TrEMBL record:
<keyword id="KW-0479">Metal-binding</keyword>
<dbReference type="InterPro" id="IPR017941">
    <property type="entry name" value="Rieske_2Fe-2S"/>
</dbReference>
<keyword id="KW-0472">Membrane</keyword>
<protein>
    <recommendedName>
        <fullName>Ubiquinol-cytochrome c reductase iron-sulfur subunit</fullName>
        <ecNumber>7.1.1.8</ecNumber>
    </recommendedName>
</protein>
<keyword id="KW-0411">Iron-sulfur</keyword>
<keyword id="KW-0249">Electron transport</keyword>
<keyword id="KW-0812">Transmembrane</keyword>
<dbReference type="Pfam" id="PF10399">
    <property type="entry name" value="UCR_Fe-S_N"/>
</dbReference>
<dbReference type="InterPro" id="IPR006311">
    <property type="entry name" value="TAT_signal"/>
</dbReference>
<dbReference type="InterPro" id="IPR006317">
    <property type="entry name" value="Ubiquinol_cyt_c_Rdtase_Fe-S-su"/>
</dbReference>
<dbReference type="InterPro" id="IPR005805">
    <property type="entry name" value="Rieske_Fe-S_prot_C"/>
</dbReference>
<keyword id="KW-1278">Translocase</keyword>
<dbReference type="Pfam" id="PF00355">
    <property type="entry name" value="Rieske"/>
</dbReference>
<dbReference type="GO" id="GO:0005886">
    <property type="term" value="C:plasma membrane"/>
</dbReference>
<dbReference type="GO" id="GO:0051537">
    <property type="term" value="F:2 iron, 2 sulfur cluster binding"/>
</dbReference>
<keyword id="KW-0813">Transport</keyword>
<dbReference type="InterPro" id="IPR014349">
    <property type="entry name" value="Rieske_Fe-S_prot"/>
</dbReference>
Length: 175
């Protein structure tokens, strides 16, 4: 029977492997900052990153406030009564005519998503207030209905709608 010879690792082999490992770690440590600097700044990400909103915990009739790109957003879970009242309005009688169906996504009439600043001077209107149970701007008296449309007061236009999409029936993505 022939014996197979196995070479015993030498000190030189160990030093060669250890030097290679330290060199690889050194190269990675030097390259990391160069690669990381190519990523966008955290402020840039925060300024424009889309925001996902889980709609499931929002009770019917509740208005949730959040910020996207530094701007206030209202997400309102409208009741069937609020939807009916908004749909029955004579659009021609509005200062800024817009149908309720144009302000919500098809099949999701219960969800209204609007910017949360009055279009007059940028004040924050109070929810579930005013003659139409929509929003009331306490500063100058602008009154918005449950669709965010201007009904009375100095505001020239309806509450704007941010860009958003339904990711699922219970989640939206703003931005």
């Amino acid at each position: 029977m022939a014996e197979t010879a196995t070479a015993e690792p030498t000190r030189r082999d160990f030093l060669f492997i250890a030097t290679g490992a330290v060199g690889a770690v050194g190269v990675a440590a030097v390259a990391w900052p160069f690669i990381a600097q190519m990523n966008p700044d955290a402020a840039t990400i925060a300024a424009g990153a889309p925001v996902e909103v889980d709609l499931e915990p929002i009770a019917e009739g509740q208005i949730v406030k959040l910020f996207w790109r530094g701007k206030l957003i209202f997400v309102r879970h409208r009741t069937p009564e609020e939807i009916k009242a908004a749909e029955e309005v004579n659009v021609a009688s509005l200062p800024d005519p817009e149908a309720d169906s144009a302000r919500v996504k098809e099949g999701h009439a219960q969800w209204l998503v609007v910017y949360g600043n009055c279009t007059h001077l940028g004040c924050v209107p109070l929810g579930h207030a005013g003659a139409y149970d929509g929003w009331l701007c306490p500063c100058h008296g602008s009154v918005f209905d449950t669709s965010g449309r201007i009904r009375q007061g100095p505001a020239p236009t309806n509450l704007p709608i941010p860009p958003y999409t339904f990711v699922s029936d219970t989640k939206i993505q703003i931005g």
